[in-house]
Write a structure and sequence with these properties.
The chain is α+β, with helices and mostly antiparallel strands. It is built from 18 helices and 7 strands. The chain has a 5-stranded antiparallel β-sheet with strand order 5-4-3-6-7, covered by helices on one side. The protein has a two-stranded parallel ribbon with strand order 1-2. The N and C termini lie far apart (68 Å).
C-alpha cells in the first residue's frame, strides 16, 4: 500500500514546475481579458457577480477593487507566486499563495470556469500538503532522496483517478456505447478544431477511438493501483492516458484541460522509470512517510469531503445528507466542489453567434468579428470566432435557458461590447442598435452531415440611439 500511494520526488518536482508554468499561462490568458472580465467597466461588474453568487464563502481578493490598476496588481502578485513555485523558492508559501489567488480569480468570474479550472485548483490544493520542494528546487535544505507517502500523496493520486472514473460513469449512455460520441463532439460548433473537423470523414476510426477512450477511463484508474508489476502496468496506462489527452488537445478546443491532466499524471510515474531516465542520480527504494499531524489531518478531512462529493454525483446520491450544497465552507470557500461529467453527453444547442450592430451611418457590422460586415452564413470553424477558451465557454453557456442561469449575462456582455466599440469610433460609426443573434440548426442534424438550414434566435436587442 505504501508503494502504491508513494510519489517519487522527481515526479513531485516536475509536477511543481508544470503547475507553475500552467498558472503563468492561465494568468496570461486571463490578463488579455483584464478589462473585459475583471473590472467593473467590463462584462462582470462586482455588484452583478455578488447578486448572483451571494454567499459569504464566494470570497475573492478581486472584490476589493474594480479598477484596471487594482486588478493588474493582483495579477502581478499571482504571477510572482507562480514563478516562485516553478523555481521551488519558498515553495510552501508559493503554493499556498498560488492556490489562494487561483481560487480568488475563480470566484471573481464563475461563469467562465471549466473542467481545466476545477482540476488545476484541486491539484494545487493537494500540492499545499506535498513536499514539492524535495527535488530540483531552490529550497535545497528540504531535499528528499526517496519516494514519499502520506495522506496527501494518496489524496492527489485518488483525485486524478476519481476524475477519470466519474467521467466514465457520466459517459455510460447510448452515445458512448454505440461509439458515436466523439463524432458528435467533433461536429459541435463550440469544440471542434480544424483537425477534429477533418477527422469526421473517418467514422469507423472515430468509433474505435470512442470505445477505446471510454474503456480507458473506466479501467485505467483501477489498473494504476494494481500491485502486480505496478511499474510496467502504470507505464502502459500512463502512455495511453497521455495519448488520449494529446488527441483531445489536437482535435478539440478545451482550453488547458489536457495539459493540466498531463501534469497530474506525472505523479503516477514510478521510481523505477525515473531511475532509468536519471541513472546518474537514482533515489533510494525505501519509502519515506511524510507525517505532520496538523496538515495531514486537514488533508484527511478534505479527502473525506471530496470522496463524499464524488459519491453524491452519482444518480442515486447515496450520501445526500452530506451534499456539497450543505457544506459551503468546504465546497465554495475552499473550492473543493467538483464535477467531472465532461462530455458525458453530446452537447445540445449547437450553433454560433452574430453580434449585429447597426451604426449611425446605417451600416451593419459584427462586433464579435471586429467590425466585419454581417455575414449570416456558418463560419468554417465557429470555435475560432471567440478570442480564447474563456470567451468560448461564456458564449456557449449564454445560449441556454437553464438552472445555471448564465443567460443573465447576455445583457451585460452586449452592453460592454457596444461601449467598447463606441469608445474607439467617431460619432458617425457609433452603435444605434444592437442585437445578439444565436444561429442554430433548424432540425436535428446527422452527426457527420450537419444541416444546411439554420434558424436565427435573437437573444438581446438594444436601442442605443448613438449613446
Amino acid at each position: 500500500m505504501k508503494k502504491l500511494f508513494a510519489i517519487d520526488p522527481r515526479g513531485l518536482a516536475l509536477f511543481r514546475m508544470a503547475i507553475g508554468v500552467l498558472l503563468l499561462i492561465d494568468l496570461a490568458i486571463r490578463a488579455s481579458d483584464l478589462r473585459s472580465m475583471y473590472t467593473d467597466a467590463g462584462m462582470f461588474p462586482r455588484p452583478l457577480v455578488a447578486s448572483l453568487f451571494n454567499t459569504v464563502w464566494n470570497w475573492s481578493f478581486h472584490f476589493g477593487g474594480g479598477s484596471t490598476g487594482f486588478e493588474a496588481a493582483l495579477f502581478v502578485i499571482a504571477g510572482a507566486l507562480a514563478i516562485a513555485l516553478t523555481l521551488g523558492w519558498q515553495t510552501r508559501l508559493a503554493t499556498i499563495g498560488s492556490w489562494l489567488f487561483l481560487l480568488s480569480v475563480h470566484h471573481r468570474v464563475p461563469a467562465i470556469l471549466s473542467g481545466a479550472d476545477f482540476l488545476l485548483r484541486m491539484l494545487l490544493f493537494w500540492g499545499m500538503f506535498l513536499p514539492l520542494e524535495g527535488s530540483w528546487a531552490r529550497d535545497r535544505r528540504a531535499r528528499i532522496d526517496a519516494p514519499v507517502v502520506s495522506i496527501a500523496t494518496a489524496a492527489v493520486l485518488l483525485q486524478i483517478a476519481l476524475m477519470y472514473l466519474m467521467s466514465a460513469i457520466s459517459k455510460t449512455n447510448e452515445h458512448w456505447l454505440r461509439g458515436d460520441a466523439l463524432a458528435g463532439m467533433l461536429s459541435h460548433d463550440f469544440f471542434a478544431s480544424r483537425i477534429g473537423a477533418w477527422l469526421l470523414q473517418f467514422p469507423m476510426l472515430l468509433r474505435l477511438v470512442t470505445w477505446g477512450s471510454f474503456a480507458l477511463e473506466w479501467f485505467g484508474p483501477v489498473f494504476l493501483f494494481v500491485p502486480w508489476r505496478n511499474a510496467t502496468v502504470r507505464a502502459v496506462i500512463l502512455a495511453l492516458f497521455a495519448a488520449m489527452h494529446i488527441g483531445i488537445a489536437v482535435c478539440m478546443d478545451v482550453g488547458l484541460f489536457s495539459y493540466v491532466a498531463l501534469a497530474g499524471l506525472l505523479l503516477f510515474v514510478p521510481s523505477e522509470i525515473w531511475n532509468r531516465l536519471f541513472a546518474k542520480s537514482p533515489v533510494r527504494s525505501k519509502t519515506v512517510i511524510d507525517w505532520h499531524p496538523l496538515p495531514q489531518s486537514i488533508c484527511a478531512i478534505a479527502l473525506g469531503f471530496v470522496l463524499v462529493g464524488n459519491l453524491n454525483a452519482l444518480p442515486m446520491r447515496p450520501l445526500r445528507f452530506l451534499a456539497p450544497e450543505t457544506w459551503k465552507p468546504f465546497a465554495i470557500g475552499l473550492g473543493l466542489d467538483q464535477h467531472w461529467g465532461m462530455f458525458g453527453a453530446i452537447p445540445t444547442n449547437n450553433g454560433w453567434y452574430v453580434a449585429r450592430a447597426t451604426l449611425a451611418d446605417g451600416s451593419e457590422v459584427d462586433l464579435l468579428r471586429n467590425g466585419a460586415p454581417v455575414d449570416w452564413s456558418r463560419p468554417a470553424f465557429p470555435a475560432s470566432v471567440y478570442p480564447n477558451a474563456n470567451w468560448q465557454k461564456l458564449f456557449r453557456e449564454m445560449a441556454y435557458y437553464d438552472e445555471l442561469g448564465y443567460q443573465v449575462y447576455r445583457l451585460p456582455v452586449a452592453e460592454f461590447m457596444c461601449r467598447e466599440w463606441n469608445a474607439r469610433h467617431p460619432a458617425q460609426a457609433q452603435v444605434d442598435e444592437f442585437e445578439f443573434v444565436y444561429c442554430s440548426a433548424a432540425l436535428a442534424p446527422s452527426l457527420l452531415r450537419p444541416s444546411s438550414k439554420f434558424v436565427r434566435q435573437p437573444l438581446v436587442h438594444l436601442e442605443l440611439g448613438g449613446e
